[in-house]
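Data availability excerpt. The first of two example chains:
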Amino acid sequence: MITNIEELYEAFSRNMVHKRWWDTDNKWEILLGAVLVQNTNWRNVDYALKNLYQATHFLPEEILALEMIQLQELIRPSGFYKGKSKTIIALLTWLESYQFNLSAVADKEFPVLRKELLGIKGIGEETADVLSVYVFDQSTFIADKYAQRMFEKFGFASTGYKQLKQRIVWPETMDTLRAQNLHGWIIEYGQVYLKNDEVWQSGPLKNFKLKLSANEEKQSKRV
């Protein structure tokens, strides 16, 4: 198991700018963005979000009232628009059963909430965790591609999202804000320093080491 996440957080905190990863207070915008960003870059998502805002102001009732072909055309810039439109409808329909009360959903125990999110077609592990942390005020580790590559540099090579997440001992001190900070910092740091080995060696966290159990060290070396 990886046991020094708090140390990693503090290392990032000393070296990174403290700012919000999602530059909005509108949780419906974040929810939609979390789906739209799948398999694309944020510039394309921006175009799709602008279209959605102009047509619906991100109101879930307004989005569900759209014809499927209308929704697909609005989010076309994000790519994979047919699949993403179905995911958006499924996600909003699920939330409609809670009268679109995000706070009521946020009151659920994290394992229960995550299981429900993963039961929605088109919502995978990463998107479920992003929604949990940024929309439903939960706290968990988001083991995205940047995290997987960075943790390999730190000493733990994983086979993918699920394996890395399962190996994290997530401290109780990591509240929602800290979970958001860590996720944002990993992406921002990775975008700069994960380009190649030479650039990695120029980064301030190049010597950070994860604390692994003996079995974990052996397993990481075999991956």
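And the second chain:
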Amino acid sequence: MNDLSPNLLRLLVTLRWLAVGGQLATVVLVVHGLHIPLRQPPLWGGIAALATFNLWAGWRAQRAVRVGPAEAFAHAAVDVLVLAWLIGWSGGAMNPFAPLFLLPLALLAVELPVGWVVATALLCGVGYAASALLGPPLPHVHGTFSDPFNLHLAGMGVMFAISAAVIAFFLTRLAQALRERERELARLREQFARNEGILALATHAAAVAHELNTPLATLTLMLEDRVDQSPPGAERDEFETMSALVDACRDRVRELAAPANGAPAEARPLADALEAVIERWQLLRPAVALERSGDLADAPVVALEPAIGHLLAALLNNAADASEAAGVPRIALHLSFDGSALAGSVRDYGTGFAADSASGTLFRSTKPHGLGVGLALSHATVERLQGEWVVQPAQGGGTRVAFRLPLRAEAPA
């Protein structure tokens, strides 16, 4: 509660302009419509002072980043001071608008700490007492409201309408803000739980990568020997395919350690970088037909983050699994560059999924042998890269995942 939202100042500025307009209309009506002989110079001076302060307050509200309780209290003090001045010069305690001293307290009670709320209450009490004790009495009224009590009743009716409108407006905004805050807290809780799971998974993956490095290097040497010793034919082709698969696994293991080493990514044309990711994926999933579309010919040279390659591979694998489960081993991939970002989509020909499956919950999968990490990792990657994505049913069946990731072009050497 040390810092308040600048929206509080903006709300006070808006309500203060409404108050200035209402005060102007009231003075004109009372003096010229009801012919009540009030002293006008003090009233016009108080309204002018409040309007002048609000001009500065509006300028301040537009530029404020942080608002302390003391600043909000100072704004309320100006409102109470001007209100006490106006009430004091227009009848004091007999003025039906005297209950307006409660509005600053009602507006700030839900925003300020308890100590500042108590100070605001004391300030409003002092303002009411000063206006009641020091202000001149209400002059005698002639005409329709010749009885001061009837005038007071009419003013109380107007006061009730004003209070009801202001409180309803404020409480509606407060309820809306609370609902938005609850939705944001729910989203942050889900994101925190997912990130905790991803962090644990990353720690375990780093340990596994360290353990796999040695056996993969041994397998590479063994397969190279078998390739060299085997005569040309089907058996040698199989060994070469096995060697390529082991090399792909070894490269992926090395990529797990690359971010920890702090080495910058190599700058290369975007089309070449993505093509390498796709070729490696096709080597691991040769049974799935890949339908390509889009054009990356105008894409710049970028230092492609490894996370983008992991994202693309994860989406391709998820789509391939869904299509194969439906007996249609093919997927569609679209990639393009729109001038500032990589835009793409991956579409499968599976049976689709339930709406809650797109939430990105970690370790929950609809596939029989799935780990439930692909969608969550993809979602986390898009969020970290400040991108956008959408999951929706594809026309004709299946699911389409579209994404857009901002990219920064590398300056030519």
